[in-house]
Amino acid sequence: MKIVLASNNRGKLAELQAMFAPLGVELVSQGELFEGEAPEPHCTFVENALSKARFAAERTGLPAIADDAGMCVDHFGGLPGVDTAYYCTQFGYEKSDANNVRALLEQLQGVENRRAAMVSTLVGVRSARDPEPLIAVGRVQALIAAEPRGGNGFGFDPVLYLPELGQTFAEMAPALKHAHSHRGRATQQMLALVRERWMQA
């Protein structure tokens, strides 16, 4: 079975390909099949992921899976949410992981409540007009560390601290991170849904 991944992020593709391999599913990046990206005008992860999945399915005629993810900080009322990747730009920084981390630490200076959740929402559709999309949500509650720690991972990994493990995501080995990350949790749910709904004889 071939499924298009509605993303051009190579890291995300490699991560998801490895997780989907046991199903015998071939996951192909949309960039290999067509040009352009879906509009993401919505304020929730699930709506944006659905928009991306339908867009990719419409252009390829294949089932599609899309991911929308971000960080929800308690002190900011759940923001930056769907705008996580561009968080630092509102403070005059150029878009980059390092600047996102810098801006977040600056905005939380002196703030006691450092709770934040990383959320990954995966949506799968069999076709562009699928009335019953598969939806999987992975959520990890963490604390924002006072300073970056660790050299692994990407995004906000260096400041996302899991008290129960005593490490940031950037300090974890890849296998440990996949077992505890928001994307890892969402992917395990999606694998079960695909197996149950799309692969039964």
UniProtKB/TrEMBL annotation:
Entry annotated with the keyword Magnesium: yes
GO biological process: nucleotide metabolic process; purine nucleoside triphosphate catabolic process
CDD domains assigned to the protein according to its UniProt record, in alphabetical order: HAM1 (cd00515)
Classification via Gene3D superfamilies: 3.90.950.10
Amino acids binding substrate: 7-12, 69, 154-157, 177, 182-183
Textual note on the cofactor: Binds 1 Mg(2+) ion per subunit.
One of the record's GO molecular function terms: ribonucleoside triphosphate phosphatase activity
Catalytic residue list: 68
Alphabetical list of InterPro entries matching this protein: dITP/XTP_pyrophosphatase (IPR020922), ITPase-like_fam (IPR029001), RdgB/HAM1 (IPR002637)
Keyword terms, alphabetized: Hydrolase, Magnesium, Metal-binding, Nucleotide metabolism, Nucleotide-binding
E.C. no: 3.6.1.66
Residues annotated as signal peptide: none
Keyword Hydrolase: yes
Enzymatic reactions: ITP + H2O = IMP + diphosphate + H(+); dITP + H2O = dIMP + diphosphate + H(+); XTP + H2O = XMP + diphosphate + H(+)
One GO term describing the cellular component: cytosol
Cofactor requirement: Mg(2+)
Task performed by this protein: Pyrophosphatase that catalyzes the hydrolysis of nucleoside triphosphates to their monophosphate derivatives, with a high preference for the non-canonical purine nucleotides XTP (xanthosine triphosphate), dITP (deoxyinosine triphosphate) and ITP. Seems to function as a house-cleaning enzyme that removes non-canonical purine nucleotides from the nucleotide pool, thus preventing their incorporation into DNA/RNA and avoiding chromosomal lesions.
Subunit structure comment from the entry: Homodimer.
Family assignment from sequence similarity: Belongs to the HAM1 NTPase family.
Record-given protein name: dITP/XTP pyrophosphatase
Organism: Comamonas antarctica
